[in-house]
Structure formats: structure tokens, C-alpha cells
């Protein structure tokens, strides 16, 4: 399948993924100060231990693989929220409300209670439990303690607004209420639709209370495929394998409303961010292809009694199955540690078509704050920080240069531009590109125009030469049709420089003006995506190893950069190529079953980036009157351990895409564009572009820019 280009910023938000075995190796400070958990037995870690309840798991074989043995967790080892806590960087797992005390509450509390539901009566046949409203009341008590510890309500509110709140209830309202008519009348009083409505109304009330008590980042877990659990298979499946549709259908009614509640809450509470995790879809993926996740048994518990080991949960001291890693379910209802950690990984940063990102909630929020800060403090009235901004690149920067070319690489139709003031312009996103936002951060009062439409525009303020499908090599992307390669973009810039000379009526004045301008070059991904890895159209992969190809690219790149310098460029930004193998389109087209990225593609771009970064020192030494900088936005997040990781990114497009990975013309895109990192299969949304621009402009991490970021480059005093 043909693919379009993606420049260096694309991977920042959605493709920072974590190695499957890296659960206990996080040593940096947590990404959030605290993590609060509300739920049922799927995440209970001991709150029911002292209750008069049949819903307890404080005995073996529960906890057989947990470091401290039985703890009240309904699994052999860790729960989903344990895995998420580790991914968030916490050194210790979040303590239960029943046990936490003192300053430990500042890191978060787990309020979950087995058998609990959204409705008060849910689970009462099992004895004592703490309903959703009871858990929220316990949280309110915790908030009072936080206020006392921090000294005042304002400090507490500020602190709590930075925390993550995980909420996963509703399963018991079906298992231990609606589908248990011998104990409850709800199925006689409500249709499944009506029952889902009552649950969401009650759920919404509790969310509002949490919001009123400081919660601002909330994660709502949908209900999983209850009809596929060993208990339901044992009780209601004819063959013990076929899932029980009537239960799953009812669960989906609830999930659809919960997802709608997410949008509603975000709309009503603009200072909050609520995200939905499609647990149902995650389990559907696993059940559809268990081998890809390492499971051989998905219809029976590892321990338990009766058909499918699902009629009764694990008995005290019962010997469980020895091959626990191969079982999806631990007992009649609850996943094994292996299942839980997959859900945690997916919830943390994967599968955006089916769920939003916890990772995005943590990290993107920070980056958007950076972007907002930069826009507030750097976009000021008066002259921009540089007199001109010249842009060279591919489709992530293209703002219309391909519109009139004979090419399939175009974006001058809806839904592209749906959030841009002027509608579709040729930008491969829903709104602004990274360079548009950089132009704002630099203080320009208008976006930099495309070379194809510079008539009447003030070319002194800059020109955008970027062209979709273009690369460093002249033939890259030629199977898409016409485009402007990097060399052609340099030729076009040469023509503009001549016009500037005529406009200023002096070559010396033109040179003086151009020396002060900023030059942004972001290109190279197409040389892999639309050349090296497309052997049916190009022979580069047959002629070069990846190391040799990187050197060939750098040789041509250097020639063009030297030409750019000869045309007056003195402040030049070079953007890295990111791990292209983790792009949604690449995973879909070339990923192996169960794989999370195309590893060989990721590895292929590493030598090029190394060459590009090294070239910065070489150019700065060769041209002491200039300053070249290198920016790799992913480096602000990725560690050496995570650079080679693979992370599932299938299906994260916001629009319906065709076989080429581009949005199908005039199709309605997703509604949650304000939090989706990708717009199509290869290009970032405006949401992601805001963060990318903020990092490139002001690298607060100190990891993305070398030897400095753009905000420092524009202030640099150069030799004349």
C-alpha cells in the first residue's frame, strides 16, 4: 500500500510506548503527583478485607504471584491500576483506603470495593461493600486531610487538579443486579436502554462531586465483555465458548452512553479533561486473536470450580493452573496479571480509535499548557522575533503548494481544514500545522504563505516551500505524482531571494534581511516511507544498506543546506525523522500480527538522525557566521530504553482513510479532534501540532533541542 510522508513531529504524542517488560524499571519522578482509584473487584486491593462480605480475595491462591502474597486483589498478581501506577512512574503501588494514613494519601488512594456498583443496592446479596457514592464520600474525607496537610484549600485544589482519577464501575450493576432477577427487580422495571440511562445519570452525579472536590483529569473505564467471562460461558453459553450476546449488548448500551458522557463533561467543564477507555474493545482484540497476546486459554479460569472453572471463584488454598501466563482469566470473572497488564498498557497509551490515552492526559496536557504559555507570552503586539520565516519540508508543513500539481498527494478538500479559519487549504490536518503555530509563537500576525500563492503577499516575511510526498532525494515520492523535492524547493527559494533583492532594491539589503530570518527544514521521512521501503517503485533498498542509505541522504541534504547558506540563511532549524514504523498507517500496512510497530523501519531511520545531529556541529564549525540546530521532539519524552519499543497504534485516525492513508474526501471526521493526536493515518492533528511547536520553540525538557531550541536561536547574536 502506498503511503504519504510524516515529518519529525508526528510521533510525539501517540507513539511514546513502553516495553512490555518495563513495569518495574521506572526510576524518575511520577508523571503526576497522585493517582486516585474508584472501582470494583477488578481493581480492589484490600478494601473489602475487613468487611462482612463474600466478595473477598485475601487468601491463597489469590496473590500467588504478587510480591506480598494475598492482599485482597482478585487476581494472581497485579491489577490493571497497579500496572498503570507503574507506568505513571510511582515507586510503590497505590494503597487501599482501608490501610492508608498520614502523608501517604498525597500519592493517591485506592477506594475500589469488590461487588460495588453505581447503584446503591448492587451486590448486596454478597454482603458489605462500598458503592460508588460511598467511595466518593471516602474521597471527600481524603480531600479534607489533604487540605490539612497542605495548609489551605487553594493549595489542595491546585495539587489535586494535577492528579489522575481512575473510575471503573458498572460491571456489577449487570452481573450482580440487572441479570440476577432472583435478587433484584431492576430487569423487570427497566429495559436495557432505560437501565443504562439510570446508571449514567447516577454516574454523572458522582463525577460532578469529584469535580467539585478537585478532580480535573478523569479516566472512565468502560465495561468489558462480561458475556465472554468464564462465569457467563459456564452458565449461559451452549458450547462454553460462544459469548453471551444479550449481556454484551446490554454492556455496550452502557459503554456508548459513558462515552457520550465523556464528551458532555468535557464540553461543560472546560478546565477538566475526561477520557474514556474502551475496555470492551481491548478484550475483543484479545479474544479475537489470543495467540498474538500470548494466551492459549480464554474461556476458562486458571482456578475455580465447575464448567469453565467459572461456576464458583477460587476456593481457599486451591491449586491453580501452572501456566498462568497463558490464561486470560484468573477465576470466573477476573483477568490474570497478564491480562491486567495488557489492559493497563492499552489504557496508558494505545489504540486511540477504541480509547483515548491516559498517556495523553498526563503528557499532552502539559504540552498544551506550554503551548498556551508560549502563545500568551510570546505572541505579542509589535514586530515578530525574526523578520522572516522560511519553511522547507513535506506534507506535515505543506500549506497548499501541491494544490495545483498533478498528484494524489493533496489535502485541499474536506475534512482537511475543518477547524482551520479558511477551511481546506492544502494542509494535511484539521487545523493549524506545527509551522503555523511556530509562526504565531514567533509573533507573526499571519501564517506564512505557500510558494504557489505568494503573489500579493509580503515575501519579506517568509515563504512556505513544503510539498507533500517530497523528500531529500529527487525521485522520492514520484509514484504519487508531481511534487517539489528539496532541491526544487531550494530552486524556488533562489527565485524568491532574487525577488527580495529587487523589492529592497539592493542585494546587500536583501542579504542583511535574510541573515536575520529563521529557516526551518523538516524532511527525510518520505525518503524511507516513499522510497526505501517501497521496493516496487524504487531500488534504493536493493542498492544500499540502511547505514549506506543514511549517508547518501545526508550527502544530498548537506549539498542543499550549503546552498541555503549561500542564499543568506544563517539561523537554520533541522528536524529529526521519528520512528516511522510506529505510524498507524505503517502498522496497518506492514506490521506483523500482534506487533506494535514495524521494528525494521524504526531502526532504519536511526543512522540518518545520528548523521543529521552530527552535521550540526560540522556546519557550525564550517560556517561560524551561522547557527544550525537539531530538534528531535520525541527525545523530550523517549528514553534510551523506550526508543526501540513497539506500541500499538492501529486505528488512531480521526477521519475515515482510504487505502493511501489520507482522509476520504467529504467524510465526517471524529468529534473529539481536540484530543486526538492523529488526523489521518500519517499526519498529526492540530492538537498534536500545538505540543510539537511548543517543544521545538521552548525545549523545557532539555532533551529535544541541540545545542539550543528555537526561542534561543532567534535571540542568538551571530558574526557578520
Automatic annotation (TrEMBL):
The UniProt transmembrane annotation reads 356-374
Superkingdom is: Eukaryota
Q: Where does the signal sequence lie?
A: 1-28
Any single Gene Ontology cellular-component annotation: extracellular region
Q: Which InterPro entries match?
A: GDSL, GDSL_esterase/lipase, SGNH_hydro_sf, SGNH_plant_lipase-like
Instruction: From the UniProt record, give one GO term of the biological process aspect.
Output: lipid catabolic process
Protein location: Secreted
What are the UniProt keywords, alphabetically? Hydrolase, Lipid degradation, Lipid metabolism, Membrane, Secreted, Signal, Transmembrane, Transmembrane helix
UniProt keyword Signal present = yes
CDD domains referenced in this protein's UniProt entry, alphabetically: SGNH_plant_lipase_like (cd01837)
Q: Which Pfam families match?
A: Lipase_GDSL
Q: Which GO terms describe its molecular function?
A: hydrolase activity, acting on ester bonds
The family note in this entry says: Belongs to the 'GDSL' lipolytic enzyme family.
Q: What is this protein called?
A: Zeta-carotene desaturase
Amino acid at each position: 500500500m502506498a503511503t504519504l510522508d510524516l515529518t519529525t513531529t508526528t510521533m510525539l504524542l501517540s507513539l511514546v510506548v513502553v516495553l512490555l517488560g518495563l513495569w518495574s524499571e521506572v526510576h524518575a519522578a511520577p508523571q503526576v503527583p497522585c493517582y486516585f482509584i474508584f472501582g470494583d473487584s477488578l481493581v480492589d486491593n484490600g478494601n473489602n478485607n475487613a468487611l462482612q462480605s463474600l466478595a473477598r480475595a485475601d487468601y491463597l491462591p489469590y496473590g500467588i504471584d504478587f510480591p506480598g502474597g494475598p492482599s485482597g486483589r482478585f487476581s494472581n498478581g497485579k491489577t490493571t491500576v497497579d500496572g498503570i501506577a507503574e507506568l505513571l512512574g510511582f515507586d510503590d503501588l497505590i494503597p487501599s483506603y482501608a490501610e492508608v494514613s498520614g502523608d501517604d494519601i498525597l500519592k493517591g488512594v485506592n477506594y475500589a470495593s469488590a461487588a460495588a456498583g453505581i447503584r446503591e443496592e448492587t451486590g448486596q446479596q454478597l454482603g458489605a461493600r462500598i458503592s460508588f457514592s460511598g467511595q466518593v464520600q471516602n474521597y471527600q474525607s481524603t480531600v479534607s486531610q489533604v487540605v490539612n496537610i497542605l495548609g489551605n484549600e487553594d493549595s489542595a485544589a491546585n495539587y489535586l487538579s494535577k492528579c489522575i482519577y481512575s473510575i471503573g464501575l458498572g460491571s456489577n450493576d449487570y452481573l450482580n443486579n440487572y441479570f440476577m432477577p432472583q435478587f433484584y427487580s431492576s430487569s423487570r422495571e427497566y429495559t436495557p436502554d432505560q437501565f443504562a440511562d439510570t446508571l449514567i445519570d447516577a454516574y454523572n452525579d458522582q463525577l460532578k462531586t469529584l469535580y467539585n472536590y478537585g478532580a480535573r483529569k478523569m479516566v472512565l473505564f468502560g465495561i468489558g465483555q462480561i458475556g465472554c467471562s468464564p462465569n457467563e460461558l459456564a452458565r449461559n453459553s451452549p458450547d462454553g465458548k460462544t459469548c453471551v450476546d444479550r449481556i454484551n449488548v446490554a454492556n455496550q448500551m452502557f459503554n456508548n452512553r459513558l462515552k457520550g458522557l465523556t464528551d458532555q463533561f468535557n464540553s461543560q467543564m472546560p478546565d477538566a479533561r475526561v477520557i474514556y477507555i474502551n475496555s470492551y474493545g481491548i478484550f475483543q482484540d484479545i479474544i479475537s486473536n489470543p495467540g498474538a497476546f500470548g494466551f492459549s486459554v480464554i474461556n476458562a479460569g486458571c482456578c475455580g470450580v465447575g464448567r469453565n472453572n467459572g461456576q464458583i471463584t477460587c476456593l481457599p488454598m486451591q491449586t491453580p493452573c501452572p501456566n498462568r501466563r497463558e490464561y486470560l482469566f484468573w477465576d470466573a470473572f477476573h483477568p490474570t496479571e497478564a491480562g491486567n497488564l495488557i489492559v493497563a498498557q492499552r489504557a496508558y497509551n494505545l489504540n486511540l480509535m477504541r480509547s483515548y490515552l491516559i498517556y495523553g492526559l498526563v503528557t499532552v496536557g502539559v504540552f498544551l499548557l506550554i503551548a498556551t504559555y508560549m502563545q500568551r507570552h510570546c505572541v505579542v503586539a509589535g514586530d515578530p522575533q525574526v523578520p522572516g520565516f522560511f519553511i522547507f519540508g513535506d506534507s506535515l508543513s505543506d500549506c497548499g503548494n501541491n494544490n495545483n500539481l498533478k498528484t494524489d498527494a493533496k489535502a485541499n478538500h474536506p475534512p482537511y481544514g475543518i477547524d482551520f479559519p479558511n477551511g481546506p487549504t492544502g494542509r494535511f490536518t484539521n487545523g493549524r500545522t506545527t509551522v503555523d503555530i511556530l509562526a504565531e509563537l514567533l509573533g507573526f500576525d499571519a501564517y506564512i504563505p505557500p510558494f504557489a500563492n505568494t503573489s500579493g503577499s509580503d515575501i519579506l516575511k517568509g515563504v512556505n516551500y513544503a510539498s507533500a510526498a517530497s523528500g531529500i532525494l529527487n525521485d522520492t515520492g514520484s509514484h504519487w505524482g508531481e511534487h517539489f523535492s528539496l532541491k526544487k524547493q531550494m530552486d524556488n527559494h533562489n527565485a524568491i531571494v532574487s525577488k527580495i533583492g529587487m523589492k529592497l532594491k539592493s542585494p546587500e539589503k536583501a542579504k542583511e534581511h535574510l541573515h536575520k530570518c529563521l529557516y526551518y527544514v523538516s524532511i527525510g521521512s518520505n525518503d524511507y516511507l516513499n522510497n526505501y521501503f517501497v521496493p516496487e517503485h524504487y531500488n534504493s533498498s536493493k542498492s544500499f544498506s540502511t547505514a549506506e542509505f543514511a549517508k547518501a541522504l545526508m550527502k544530498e541534504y548537506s549539498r542543499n543546506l550549503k546552498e541555503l547558506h549561500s542564499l543568506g540563511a544563517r539561523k537554520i532549524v533541522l528536524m529529526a525523522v521519528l520512528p516511522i514504523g510506529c505510524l498507524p498507517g505503517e502498522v496497518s500496512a506492514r506490521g506483523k500480527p500482534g506487533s506494535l510497530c514495524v521494528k525494521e523501519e524504526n531502526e532504519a531511520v536511526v543512522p540518518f538522525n545520528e548523521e543529521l545531529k552530527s552535521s550540526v556541529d560540522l556546519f557550525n564549525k564550517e560556517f561560524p557566521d551561522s547557527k544550525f540546530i537539531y530538534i528531535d521532539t520525541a527525545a523530550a519524552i523517549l528514553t534510551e530504553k523506550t526508543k526501540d519499543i513497539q506500541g500499538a497504534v492501529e486505528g488512531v485516525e480521526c477521519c475515515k482513510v482510504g487505502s493511501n492513508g489520507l482522509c476520504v474526501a467529504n467524510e465526517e471526521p471524529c468529534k473529539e479532534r481536540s484530543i486526538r493526536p492523529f488526523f489521518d493515518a500519517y499526519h498529526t492533528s492540530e492538537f498534536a501540532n500545538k505540543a510539537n511547536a511548543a517543544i521545538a520553540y521552548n525545549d523545557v525538557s532539555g532533551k529535544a533541542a541541540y545545542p539550543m531550541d528555537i526561542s534561543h536561536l532567534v535571540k542568538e547574536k551571530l558574526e557578520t
